Amino acid sequence: MDESNPLLSFLAYARKLSIKAENSKPFKKGRGIMRKILGITIIAICAMLIVTFAFNTNISAKKRVVFGGGPAGGTFQVVANAIQTYKPVKDIEGFTVKAQSSAGSVENLRKVNAGKHQFSVVYSGHVYLGRNGQMKNDTKKYEDVLAVSYLYGAPAQLVVKKGSGIKSTKDLVGKKVGVGNAGSGAFANCEMFFTHLGIWDKIERNAMGYNDAAQAFGNNQLDAFWLFTAFPSGAVIMAAQTNDIELINIGKDAEDSGYFEKYPYFGKLSIPAGTYKGVDYDTPSFFDSTLWVANSKVSADTVYELLSKIFTDEGLAHMVGQKKTFKAMSIKDGVKGIVTPLHPGAEKFWKEKGVIK
């Protein structure tokens, strides 16, 4: 007998109890009735154990895949949570999706490449730079990160107080600035843009998440804070409730400094007037495409099945219900902003949809 099997061990123990009971004096006096009662009891307990054991075995056999999100207050985490909680995804028999928070894009890139996350959200620019060994102070090539789909465009946003005298990014010299969580895409893009403008080492940098930055801004601990996320941002909405705010025209700063020529994967856009309280003008900016990515070792079937659940009318409606930003998700724009290789499962899906040849 396999003593490592808890069910078999219990059955053996129950048999011993049965024999012991049969030899007892009370049992011998009412042997027939007691035998029946004991037999029924043991059968009932064994049946319950068998059902429980089978149920637990089924759960443990269900493979868990980790979907990396981002920090609190950011859209990355909303993506991961939305996919995890979607009922058709939860009903998949072969695996279960577990959303996991992170510092953001750069950390996600590294964790997906290492296989610690099977899926994640990463900016297209970071997938490109990582694949080519061009990340800041990091020449490693992250070649196991493959694109799955386009999600939405993430624009840079720079928030200051109305009447602060800060009219351009270069006016931040000597100021206290929230620059995003260390390890996040916001931080990396802030460092890259501010370094390009020659001010990265001339500001008082405060590495923190969006919500923490908005709170510090409201408490006059920051003069400005930077975001690289979809609009409207809950953190900026929070900041506008406690202070009159302005958005800096960083699109002009990027244009005038040749930023788009140096980093051609960035696109141009404007944050519409009225997006935030008191900001009644369009604000030019730039954006990177936010991508759903997967580790190269994730099976093509797993990637294909998840895409098949999310990119349906019902799945996309679910995503929009979590955040309006996800209106940007569609079959038509499924590979928008992707300049690096697709995962084989994604390639199969987008070919079937006629998006790629």
Notes on the structure:
It is a single chain. This protein is an alpha/beta fold. The chain has three domains: 6-61; 63-152 and 291-352, Periplasmic binding protein-like II (D-Maltodextrin-Binding Protein, domain 2); 153-289, D-Maltodextrin-Binding Protein, domain 2 (3-Layer(aba) Sandwich), CATH 3.40.190. The chain has helices at 6-22, 25-29, 31-61, 75-85, 87-90, 105-114, 124-131, 185-197, 210-218, 234-242, 250-256, 259-262, 300-310, 313-322, 344-352, and strands spanning 63-68, 95-100, 119-123, 145-161, 176-178, 204-206, 224-228, 245-247, 267-271, 283-295. Strands 1, 2, 3, 4, 5, 6, 7, 8, 9 and 10 form a ten-stranded mixed β-sheet that branches. β5, α8 and β6 (204-206) form a beta-alpha-beta unit.
Short description:
The protein is 44% helix and 18% strand.
Order of helices and strands: HHHEHHEHEHEEHEHEHEHHEEHHH
Radius of gyration, CA atoms, in whole angstroms: 28 Å
Largest sheet: 10 strands, mixed
Q: What's the CATH H-level superfamily name of the largest domain?
A: Periplasmic binding protein-like II
How many helices? The count is: 15
How many strands appear in the DSSP assignment? 10
User: Class of the largest domain in CATH?
Assistant: Alpha Beta
The fraction of residues in strands falls at 15-25%
Distance between the termini: 58 Å
Low-confidence stretches: 49-60
Helix content: 40-55%
Mean pLDDT: 87
CATH architecture of the largest domain: 3-Layer(aba) Sandwich
Oligomer: single chain
- From the spread of the alpha carbons, the general shape counts as globular
Q: Structural class of the secondary elements?
A: alpha/beta
Total domain units: 3
* CATH-derived topology of the largest domain: D-Maltodextrin-Binding Protein, domain 2
